[in-house]
Amino acid sequence: MTVLAVRNLAKSFGGVQAVAEVSFDLSAGQLLAMIGPNGAGKTTCFNLLNGQLQPDSGSVQFAGRALVGLKPRRIWRLGVGRTFQITATFASMTVRENVQMALLSHHRRLAALWPRAAALHAADAVALLAELGMEDQAERACSVLAYGDLKRVELAVALAHGPRLLLMDEPTAGMAPAERIQLMELTARIARERGIAVLFTEHDMDVVFAHADRIIVLNRGRLIAEGPPAAVREDPQVREVYLGSGATFGARAG
Amino acid sequence: MSFYVIQFLNGLTTAASLFLVASGLSLIFGVTRIVNFAHGSFYMLGAYIAWSLVGRAGGGALGFWAGVLGAALIVGVVGAAIEIVLLRRIYQAPELFQLLATFGVVLVVQDVALWLWGSEDLLGPRAPGLKGAVEILDGRLPEYNLLMIALGPALLGLLWLLFHRTRWGTLVRAATEDREMVAALGVDQRLLFTSVFFLGSFLAGLGGALQLPRDAANLHMDLNIIADVFVVVVVGGMGSVAGAFLAAVLIGELHAFGIVLFPKITLVLVFLVMAVVLVVRPYGLLGTPPAHPRATGAGIEPVIRPAPRALALLGLAVLAILVAVPLVAGPYAVAMLTEIAILVLFAASLHFMMGPGGMASFGHAAYFGVGAYGVALVMKSFAAPMLPALAAAPLAAGLAGIVFGWFCVRLSGVYLAMLTLAFAQICWSVAFQWVAVTGGDNGLLGVWPAEWAKDRTVFYYLALILCTAGVLLLRRVIYAPFGYALRAGRDSPLRAEAIGINVMAVQWGGFAFAALFAGLAGGLFALFKGSVFPTYLAISKSVDALLMVLLGGVQTISGPIIGAALLAGLEEQLIRATAYWRVVLGLVIIGLVLAFPQGIAGFIAAQWERRSPGREAARVT
Question: In the prediction, which pLDDT does B100 show?
């Protein structure tokens, strides 16, 4: 079932066409990797989907609803979770409280002036953390966590309200190689179990080819390839973008 | 016609003098990120020192100008010395601590000036050769004013050359944009900062010295000019010298024509303009948003955990003692404790905004004062009994919080703080100028409690009950989902919005909630004193609240309680003990800032954690 349908998305900054005529679909339970060299338009594309930026034209349909024009917090309420390239967590709260914030917001209890927040939805938060293998860290402050653990906190927060779509901007940036594989395995398992559609950008090709069901490749704002990992790997245009055409060095070597 | 021309030129004269002081402040802020409250003191020192030097040099033109220049140089050296001795040690501390330290300097300078030059206004000599006036279209303008008018653009040009044609100036511009990068490139920051402080203070001193022929040097010059200069710097854009010039002209003309066109609301006008500019252009006319905000690590707030049992017991014990005090102590102690209880609530309400809310306010007195005037006006106009009138205090303040907060939460950081200051000054101006309703400077008298509460002890218990309840309620809310939502918005607005939190709305609510409790404190204070005055709304009242919160420790919930009790007690004792209480208080503040950059309660909490392992990075409350 198609969860996310993007059609002819376009955005330019001044004279620079950052994203041009990008279209793709994403189904439930599927992991879609968006790759491309630096400056390809990946982050812009992400920010168009999550409401941080407004597209010049094109449409984004999430479970049959148009997302264009909605604020990030509205999009979240519709069931879209996000993680950030540079982790954004509440440093003055514990890991458990970070997850509880998402739950409190989901249940629309943030205006409450009297009950103790620490006791609300605590069990749900701990259960989710346990699922991510973080129950030992639940009572630690986010400000003292290792970066890899913060990335997992982000994932836990993003999963808290039972999203149907997860947008992950470089989920493994800044992590050690072993941790990267672990985190993406975890993400893939949860996504399949819960039928969550995942769109992620990534620079580590090991991670991409190990876990993505499909890959889309951006270059200079345009979609240049799309398909299963094996097909994208063999695509001559993708090879050219990532490795160069070989014309410069190839001639001399020959 | 000629009248308007003369008014226009007078406006430009004021503008030149504002620009001299404001350009220095803007420069210092741009490079060091310090909001220098003491800048007005440098201005005042400039005037006093010039008075002494010129007086000694005799009446000649050479003597006069050498005196003026010498005064500016001395002030520049004083500024550099303050930077080296004091501010250099606390660049790593939170921004507001530096503000606090400079306020300590304000107090010290006030008393030093009092001691050196006495409390009489000192009339300066007129500038030799410029004593006359010129005729312009039938109007007369002092020649000296023409000189001042020419000085503004000339100084702007000189500064432009300095910043664009010298290596030092290029470094200053670079540091204004990104000082971490400048440091990473191997520039000696200490030298740069000290030299910027020298130039900034020199300009302020020059401004003060040049003011001498127009106005007598007096002890109120410092705080009188600092409010206007803040407005100029904020309207122009902090760190932008050209913006400061533009804003100085705007504010100068506003002063000149405001008196003619809107004589009743001259004081409000300036701050109204500032509020409008900040809402339309949040970083000022020529200002730019801070380019590369980097995580410094210094700003990470600790986790708030429930109070340990020992602290709860201590709190109960203190409360028991407070209840028992009237049985053993005299009326003086009871009165002092009443005042402290009220100030604790006032400080706790500001802490709610600043700590969990992350919104620093330089104008919290607005809500205290609106609460006080609320009680007084309801009692006077409707002859209302005490309790309903007292209920009007938090309502009026909360309403003010809703209105002002709507504007303020659109900004953040220093700009938000400056806008709160603007609103507080607007309230103060209304109380000061709307004599028919507020009694103006004379205030409203005879705001006494009802017959049953007239007894000092009974009123003490009333204040104790209401203030304790208020503080406990604020605490409770910090632990409730709403308090968590506030902290979420403070810690990471990006993440908060990404989990559906409307950060602006939450901050707006927090702003109004804090205002409500400040209003209750103000209402009680009005009944306690039996009168209300515009001073309840003044900058110094807002600074008091800031001092209490920051000295106590903004990161701990008990901080403001400790801070308020200490400061109120200290001030009271000092004023009784010596005429030079300001210098002592100022030195105490500076000492505390240097010794406890986390605040006193923050320091205690850190010690507590060191002795209880396993509570890493947690902060007891």
Answer: 84
Q: What is the set of domains in chain A, with CATH numbers?
A: 2-79+162-253 (3.40.50.300), 91-161 (no CATH)
One domain, residues B415 and B535:
yes
Interface test with A, best of B477, B495, B609 (most A CBs within 10 A): B495
**Tens digits of per-residue pLDDT, B495-537?**
999 999 999 999 999 999 999 999 999 999 999 999 999 999 9
B270: domain CATH number is 1.10.3470
Same domain, B6 and B153: yes
The pLDDT value recorded for residue B612 is 63
Which chain A residues have a beta carbon less than 8 Å from that of B487? 90, 92-93
Q: What is the pLDDT of residues B264-288, one digit of tens each?
A: 777 788 888 888 888 888 888 888 7
Residue pair B90/B590 in contact (Cβ under 8 Å)? The answer is no
Quote the CA–CA distance of B326 and B480 in Å, as a whole number.
35
Predicted confidence band of residue B621 (pLDDT cuts 50, 70, 90):
very low
Rounded Cα distance between B587 and B105, Å, is 8
Residue A109 exposed, middle or buried by CB count within 10 Å (0-12, 13-18, 19+): middle
Which residue of B lies nearest to A143 if distances are taken between CA atoms?
Answer: B300
Contact criterion met (CB below 8 Å) for B301 and B491: yes
In a domain, B296, yes or no: no
One domain for residues B331 and B249: no
**Phi and psi of B123, rounded to 5°?**
-80, 125
Do residue B223 and residue B162 come from a single domain?
yes
Query: pLDDT of B167-215, one tens digit each?
Result: 999 998 888 888 888 888 988 888 999 999 999 999 999 999 999 988 8
Q: How many domains does chain B have?
A: 2
Confidence of residue B293 (pLDDT cuts 50, 70, 90): low
Same domain, B334 and B218: no
- In this structure, the answer to whether residues B241 and B178 fall within a common structural domain is yes
Best residue in B499, B508, B513, B619 for a mutation probing chain A (most A CBs within 10 Å): B499
pLDDT value of position A246? 55
Strand partners, B136: B139
Closest CA to B419 of B430, B428, B432, B410: B410
> Does any domain span residue B496?
yes
Count CB atoms within 10 A of the CB of residue A22.
23
Residue B497: its chain A contacts at CB < 8 A? 71-73
Output the CA torsion sign for B376, B377, B378, B382.
positive
What average pLDDT does this structure show over B47-53? 95
Say whether residue A72 is in contact with chain B using an 8 A CB cutoff: yes
What residues make up the domain containing B227? 2-280
Judge if B374 and B258 occupy the same domain.
Answer: no
- Tell me the pTM: 0.90
